[in-house]
From TrEMBL:
Domain of life: Bacteria
The protein's annotated pathway: Cell wall biogenesis; peptidoglycan biosynthesis
Catalytic class of the enzyme: transferase
InterPro entries: Beta-lactam/transpept-like, Glyco_trans_51, Glycosyltr_51/Transpeptidase, Lysozyme-like_dom_sf, PBP_transglycosylase, PCN-bd_Tpept
Location of the Penicillin-binding protein transpeptidase domain: 311-582
Record's protein name: peptidoglycan glycosyltransferase
Protein's organism: Geobacter benzoatilyticus
Catalytic activity from the UniProt record: [GlcNAc-(1->4)-Mur2Ac(oyl-L-Ala-gamma-D-Glu-L-Lys-D-Ala-D-Ala)](n)-di-trans,octa-cis-undecaprenyl diphosphate + beta-D-GlcNAc-(1->4)-Mur2Ac(oyl-L-Ala-gamma-D-Glu-L-Lys-D-Ala-D-Ala)-di-trans,octa-cis-undecaprenyl diphosphate = [GlcNAc-(1->4)-Mur2Ac(oyl-L-Ala-gamma-D-Glu-L-Lys-D-Ala-D-Ala)](n+1)-di-trans,octa-cis-undecaprenyl diphosphate + di-trans,octa-cis-undecaprenyl diphosphate + H(+)
Assigned EC number: 2.4.99.28
Keyword match Repressor: no
Glycosyl transferase family domain boundaries: 57-226
């Protein structure tokens, strides 16, 4: 106690000594505005979801300056009353205030109050740290007196209002008025001013979005001080205490709104954010967005708190992005892993290869062998792909190969249709890939975004029609009172038959394949999907869909590193997908994918791919694009007797030479 008293008395002596000095100002001369002046008539960009529910605002990130004439007199008086009642009387430091603060310090036994003037607070915010030391207070006092010599009281007050922190990222009264009330400072009411005047004491606690009891109590302190100083009457105080104030709540869907900001900048240029005045109707469904955020956060945390993730869900018919989450915590990391981050997709790229193969006449029941083959990469180098876990299944139909995510057969399939053809096919579907890539493309070795990968699945879920994803439906310009629509865009990039058969193949992946953990879900709701896991278990994916909702999930580390054995799409990403899809679809009917007329169903022997005979020990109905179905019965089980007799020479045209079969279709380049 005695030590503190000595230090406190010493500080008074030193401050008094400073008052006796005539120090030359070492500060630069010039204008006081440090930022661009606030544009007149500004209003923030408001974002609403597809149902008209307010989702949040898009505000300029840069700071603006406002002149003292644009700051309400009530706010000026309120701040002076609660922060520095003798502001217009002292020369930068207030000896009465210091003496009062020292008494409190001694009583409390610690430095709890500094007796700072508005000028000192301005100095501390601009130049010094917040450390409560005598040395810092002395430097603060010296600079404050220099400021008082250099600037008028109005200039100092103007600088104070533009420099002080108001919480929630609001530096200066211009940002504070905009963030909390969506107004310019000169539009603030007296009741709103009373709230803001109390914030600088403790911005984290007393800002208008803080705990209502704390905020109200601090406002009452402001009003009481104004009454004591006869700035307001008792009647005014009571009126302002009871007057309701509407505070703009924190924005929702931060990742989605950040993407809309980027879209607006791409469309209109960076100045559009500073100009404001727009009302944006987003494709978002706010309920699904909240569900997606919670599901991703909880699902990723269950695996590991250090992991990150992303989720995109859209309507495959329109491309409307109903939910988009770029990470598990926007406040800690605003990096967008849904639209921006690029990672290897692993096996989630395989359905596109199989769809491309169906399109050129290869059938789902064709039998392939998964014996590994070495491929020449040039420069005397070879590459031999293996299955996950190096399993060998032997002969498999393409349907089975996709369900089991067979690597070897997929590489052979890509080799058959050709890399240039497939990259062109993928590009048309919405997934830009390098044509120069080699057969390793079949294993998902080229980086893609979750957004582009999900977009490329829309033709599979939508009868071969690619729907361009869109996050903005329409924009209203309040200044010009005009609307700008962003219509849906769709293109047929795949035959309805190939899309349907690929989807039915992906149904099997959820019944007995790599996503078999989703079998109960698929039995309740017709659905299709594909897992993806990259080398060393670095990325876990699942892309799945019903006729009305397409959702993709990615989980991994921002700095790629192995997640450990078992870190697979089926184990990590698929459960998150299910946790989102079940409630997202709960209110809708469980409809199936419509079968096109160009798809025919034929009973085949799965071992041979031929038409099944009565003696075939195993039969299965298989789907074919019309014209590609088998026409020969199984030769192993009595098919020869059922097959039609070859034509005799007399039945042949011309000189009796057989008519040549047309060559099989070659992949378009």
């Amino acid at each position: 106690m005695h030590s503190l008293l000595k230090r406190s008395i010493l500080s008074v002596i030193l401050v008094c000594s400073l008052l006796m000095l005539t120090a030359a100002s070492a500060l630069a001369q010039g204008g006081i505005a440090r930022y661009p002046h606030l544009p007149s008539g500004y209003s923030s960009i408001k974002v609403f979801d597809r149902h008209g529910r307010f989702a949040g605002r898009i505000l300029p990130e840069k700071r603006f300056w406002i002149s003292i004439e644009q700051i309400p007199a009530f706010l000026q008086n309120a701040v002076i009353a609660v922060e520095d009642a003798r502001f217009y009387e002292h020369g930068g430091i207030d000896l009465r205030g210091i003496a009062r603060a020292l008494v409190k310090d001694v009583v409390k036994g610690k430095l709890v109050e500094g007796g700072s003037t508005i000028t000192q607070q301005l100095i501390k915010n601009k130049y010094l740290t917040g450390a409560k030391t005598i040395e810092r207070k002395l430097e603060e006092a010296r600079l404050a007196m220099e400021y008082e010599k250099k600037y008028s009281k109005k200039q100092i007050l103007e600088m104070y209002f533009n420099e002080i922190y108001y919480g929630n990222g609001a530096w200066g009264i211009a940002q504070a008025a905009r963030i909390y009330f969506d107004k310019n400072p000169d539009e603030l009411t007296d009741a709103e001013c009373a709230l803001l005047a109390g914030v600088p004491k403790n911005p984290g606690r007393y800002n208008p979005l803080g705990k209502s009891s704390d905020v109200s109590r601090r406002r009452d302190v402001v009003l009481t001080r104004m009454l004591d100083l006869e700035m307001i009457s008792a009647k005014q105080k009571q009126k302002l205490r009871t007057r309701p104030v509407t505070v703009v709540q924190r924005g929702q869907a931060p990742y989605y709104l950040a993407h809309i900001r980027d879209e607006l900048v791409r469309k209109f240029g960076a100045r559009i954010i500073d100009q404001g005045g727009l009302e944006v109707t987003a494709a978002m469904d706010l309920n699904l967005q909240k569900l997606a955020e919670k599901t991703l956060r909880d699902g990723v945390k269950k695996v590991s708190p250090q992991l990150q993730g992303a989720l995109i869900s859209l309507d495959p018919a329109t491309g409307d992005v109903l939910a988009a989450v770029g990470g598990v915590n926007f406040a800690k990391s605003n990096y967008d892993r849904a639209f921006v981050a690029r990672r290897q997709p692993g096996s989630t790229i395989k359905p596109l290869i199989y769809a491309a193969a169906l399109e050129v006449g290869i059938t789902a029941d064709s039998v392939w062998d998964d014996t590994p083959v070495a491929y020449n990469r040039g420069n005397n180098q070879t590459w031999k792909p293996f299955n996950y876990g190096r399993e060998k299944y032997g002969a498999l139909t393409l349907r089975q190969a996709l369900a089991y995510s067979n690597n070897v057969i997929t590489v052979k399939l890509l080799d058959t249709i050709g890399v240039p053809y497939f990259t062109g096919f993928a590009r048309n579907a919405g997934l830009p890939l390098r044509a120069s890539n080699d057969l390793s493309l079949a294993l998902g070795t080229e980086d893609v975004t979750l957004h582009d990968l999900v977009a490329a699945y829309t033709p599979l879920a939508n009868g071969g029609v690619k729907s361009e994803p869109r996050t903005i439906l329409r924009i209203y310009d309040k200044k010009h009172r005009s609307w700008a629509d962003n219509p849906a865009s769709a293109t047929q990039v795949l035959s309805p038959a190939a899309a349907y058969i690929t989807t039915r193949m992906l149904k099997d992946a959820m019944v007995y394949g790599t996503a078999k953990s989703l079998k109960p879900f698929s039995q309740k709701r017709p659905s299709a999907g594909k897992t993806g896991t990259t080398d060393d278990y670095r990325d876990a994916w699942f892309i799945g869909y019903t006729p009305h909702l397409l959702t993709g999930v990615w989980v991994g580390y921002d700095k790629p590193r192995p997640g450990g054995r078992g870190f697979t799409g089926g184990v990590v990403a698929a459960p998150i997908w299910r946790q989102f899809m079940e409630p997202a679809l709960a209110s809708g009917p469980a409809t199936d994918f419509p079968q096109p007329e160009t798809v025919v169903t034929v009973s085949v022997d799965p071992a041979t791919g031929s038409l099944a005979t009565p003696d075939c020990p195993e039969k299965r109905d298989e789907l074919f694009i019309e014209g590609t179905q088998p026409t020969v019965y199984c030769p192993k089980h009595g098919g020869d007797a059922l097959n039609p007799e070859p034509p005799s020479p007399s039945d042949l045209p011309g000189d009796g030479a057989p008519v040549a079969e047309p060559p099989p279709p070659s992949p378009p380049l």
